[in-house]
Design brief:
Radius of gyration: 22 Å
Distance between the termini: 21 Å
Number of domains: 2
Number of helices: 4
Order of helices and strands: HEHHEH
């Protein structure tokens, strides 16, 4: 297990990036709540993170299988891999990670063509802020723990 660059920290960092982009979109929506014909923005990234987690689980399972096969016959481990398995093992965790910023095409709420509902934006900002704080706190604690391990300090 790699303590410094493990996948949990990388996925958490990607989640923070997505939450930050969502916060920017919510801010733009709030600022433009009275702008005629403004179409609110939405940000999605959770599906992309789920796919990354699924792919990384498959990669870990393949590594375990390869380790077990290596103990039996080291010379045949790589020869038994399909091109898809080799591509999976060589893939980067950030491959296929997307933060989608799209316009919300729902009907306008008023006569000015604007579809921003300020109350919804405020609730979304509060939810997004809490999610960001939770992920950032967990990531910070993880690095603090790693720092204390490196320094040899007890917590």
């Amino acid at each position: 297990m790699d303590l410094i660059n493990n996948r949990t920290k990388e996925i958490a960092a990607m989640a923070l990036d997505g939450l930050y982009e969502r916060s920017k979109a919510i801010s733009a929506n709030t600022v433009n709540a009275l702008t005629p014909n403004y179409q609110r923005k939405e940000v999605s990234f959770e599906g992309s993170l789920r796919e990354i987690i699924k792919r990384e689980d498959e990669k870990e399972n393949l590594k375990v299988q390869n380790s077990m096969n290596y103990d039996k016959n080291p010379n045949t481990v790589l020869k038994g891999q399909s091109p898809e398995q080799i591509a999976l093992l060589n893939s980067d965790i950030k491959d296929n990670y997307f933060i989608d910023v799209e316009q919300d095409l729902r009907e306008p709420t008023g006569t000015d063509g604007n579809n921003v509902v300020l109350e919804e934006e405020m609730m979304d900002e509060a939810k997004n802020g809490m999610q960001y704080q939770v992920v950032a706190t967990l990531l910070s604690k993880s690095y603090s723990l790693l720092n204390s391990v490196i320094k040899g300090q007890n917590q």
